[in-house]
Design a protein that fits this description.
Layout lengths: L7 H23 L1 H4 L9 H24 L6 H22 L2 H32 L1
């Protein structure tokens, strides 16, 4: 779709963000204490790591495949959902006092949602020009 074209920089930055989220979730599965600075005996840490990975790995993989593919029809919803998920991570990080989660989530939310906004504006201009 013409209205779905992204710059190489936008593709690379979003891909790095998605890959980073996947990498952190895999690291948390291997060693849950590596993801957040709490003791290994803290209740629910394994559940947290598994729940985080259950959403981060498939969502990150879907976003990476969409960014790499020629057809980008799913890109706008994937970027929007990815950004919203990162905002959720920011809220969780704030509630739990985890600065890294707040900083990382904020950066990735900004990247994903700014790119989604760019696609919406581009789509609107393309639709207006085609009419």
């Amino acid at each position: 779709m013409q209205g779905e074209k992204l710059s190489r920089t936008a593709v690379v930055v979003n891909a790095i963000g998605a890959a980073t989220a996947v990498a952190f979730s895999v690291a948390a599965l291997v060693d849950p204490t590596a993801a957040i600075s709490i003791g290994a005996d803290s209740p629910g840490i394994d559940l947290y790591a598994q729940a985080y990975a259950a959403r981060a790995i498939p969502l990150g993989a879907a976003l990476l495949f969409s960014l790499a593919g020629r057809r980008k029809r799913a890109l706008l919803p994937l970027l929007t959902v990815s950004g919203a998920v990162q905002l959720g991570d920011v809220a969780i990080g704030a509630a739990q006092g985890i600065p890294g989660m707040m900083a990382g989530g904020s950066a990735l939310a900004l990247v994903h949602l700014a790119t989604a906004g760019h696609l919406v504006r581009r789509r609107s201009r393309f639709a207006t020009a085609a009419a």
